[in-house]
Amino acid sequence: MLPDLQPKDEIHLRLSADDVRTSHFIKFLDEKRMVVEQPEPAIDSSALMSLIFLTYRPDRKKKQRMGFQARIENVTPDHRVFIRQLTQPFFCDLRLWPRVQFDVLPEMHAYCRNREIKVVDVSGGGTQVVLKQDDPATPAIGSLVQIKFIFDQGETTADGQILRVWIDTNGLRHVEIKFLGEPEIRNFIYKQK
């Protein structure tokens, strides 16, 4: 068991390099098995027995993360995911690329197919956007897109591939996009830190 992991603590389940989902710890079943809440978007039965990486912050006041390799053993109808810990926890990074906090970014606008889109999250590896309610776009997983970013100090474009599409509890359509290659956007977002 992990003494620094308490019920209701926020955790992150990294299903792949480009698929990190937020959840909350519920309880330990035994020394190596635990139950967590179903993340959003939900994990379905196709993920059973998948190897994942689970991370959490042992001290909420610090940014350091602990993580370990795990396996999804069961997904229940009551929105719980059963996980088996496979390795000992170690200090780690949640993602390949750090996320950018928008309070440290200058004014930024993003456009796809000549329509403005709302960026929720961005890194050198990808972005998550929310489509406007009146946006008729029906993005398909696997589709290739180009996003134009406009900053105070200039503009750039990034080619990407749609990884996930989901509707949140407020009815908003989210789209997760993985950037292809090494987009120039890194030069705009990381030098702001």
Task: Explain what you see.
By secondary structure, the protein is mainly beta. Helices cover 3% and strands 50% of the residues. The protein contains one helix and 13 strands, in the order E-E-E-E-E-E-E-E-E-E-E-E-E-H. The chain has one helix spanning 185-189; strands at 10-16, 19-28, 33-37, 51-56, 65-76, 80-85, 90-92, 108-112, 115-122, 126-131, 144-151, 154-167, 173-179. The strands form two sheets. The protein has a six-stranded antiparallel beta barrel. A six-stranded antiparallel β-barrel has the order 8-9-10-13-12-11.
What are the defining features of this structure?
single chain, 193 residues, mainly beta, six-stranded antiparallel β-barrel
